[in-house]
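To whoever picks this up:

The parser on our side crashed when reading a file containing two proteins. I've narrowed it down to the boundary between the first structure block and the second sequence. Both blocks are reproduced below exactly, byte for byte. First block:
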Amino acid sequence: MARRKKIYEGKAKILYEGPEPGTLVQYFKDDATAFNAQKKDIIEGKGVLNNRLSEFFMTGLNGIGVPTHFMRRLNMREQLVRNCEIIPLEVIVRNYAAGSLSQRLGLEEGTQLPRPIVEYCYKDDSLNDPLVTEEHIAAFGWASQQDMDDILSLALRVNDFLSGVMLAVGIRLVDFKIEIGRIYEGDFMRLIVADEISPDSCRLWDIETGQKLDKDVFRRDLGNLTDAYSEVARRLGVMPRNATQMTKPTLIN
């Protein structure tokens, strides 16, 4: 079998050339990083969990008419996705104060915000993904005003969907980040949700206890990251609820 061509490798995923024109294979690694990769580790089973959880969320978004790059899962670590032109922004939606927002504004973690706040960061690891405004985005041509209107709409629709899904299983969606891509169909261009949606890219707290079920477990040395992600998968029905603790997660096909 011919070796697949690697297109891109990031901190948590690898993109390979897809089997059909306009497609890529997205492979989820077990690598865990924090603080712009200053803290690193290999967490066995993390990539499997994130693949399945991202599939769950992307499929749900596709089902309610929010377009994503996700096409289908190929195996436990890989999914087939549309090739798209990634806008160089991280789109962050915040429902509660946490992380850098708490640090910047002196807000106590867990403070409910008066409304969802959408922020943008320029995707550049060497600059530590700096916060930027719509003025920067327009001035440097990263996205047009129509793009920004569409991105805001997409981000808030994703927030509504994720918040409802999480609330139903006793999890508070504190914040999350997504990436947006452009796809071209003839002369027509549209924006879609790309990259991944998983506990790597969300802050998820148990509503009753405040227990963190996201990458902050790794950032702050709060316990076993696989256990936290497995708990999210169990609650969402991606993993059997009666599964015992295990090194390699057993997921529902």
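<<boundary where parser fails>>
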Amino acid sequence: MMRALYISKTGMDASQFQLDVVTNNLANVNTVGFKRSRGVFEDLFYQTLRQPGAQLANGNTTPTGLQIGTGAAAVASKRIHAQGNLTQTGQPLDMAISGEGFFRILLPDGTTSYTRNGEFTRNSNGDIVNPDGYPLNPNINIPGTATQITVSTAGVVQYFLPNNPAAQTAGTLQLTTFINPQGLESIGNNLYLQSAASGDPQDGDAQTDSRGAIRNGFVEASNVNVTEELVNMITAQRAFEMNSRGVSTADQMLQKLSQL
């Protein structure tokens, strides 16, 4: 009976973790560049009461054995880096990546972070920065008098100056890909950091190797599917209820034993 109580407890913990993942996805349904997560679970240690293939007294071997599981546990929250829908904004410095890759953002401590959020603006110095004021890496500066700012699909940033018909080039946006983007470390603010699991960053221009194209005047919406997440929420709730019923049933059986 005590085993059943513990197993049900681990099931309730796993269901609670799944609900946490789902609610975080739903909370970020309107977050630009957000990638949904999926809970990953595994079964726990098995108590082996009879080893499969063990020798019996009559000389035969057991065909299956007798093993009892001890429950389930959450082991990971896996990012799903599927493409989100591109939404047109018409803003000259809004950018979306169509395909693979991340924008490179320089943090105040000198660390390079990565993002899919292309909501960029210019700060008071003319540097292109993200919503938190962090500049691109490498930095791209556009003078305050610049007009008709454009970004090509290859990431070339150009603008025009008054009384000058020639286009000026401010720089080229670089994108970064990883062997395992699901191994990136999420630090909030739509930013990721490289980790030992993600592999080394592969920097380069857009539309080279496996990197995607940059769409100027668009942003990438969250890839959260509200209907799917609501179904996952109901599933997690029902699993929690069934495991709690297991706790209640085991408790009732223990109560019967104590009354004998």
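After patching the parser it read the second block fine. The mean pLDDT is 93. Residues 2-81+224-258 form one domain.
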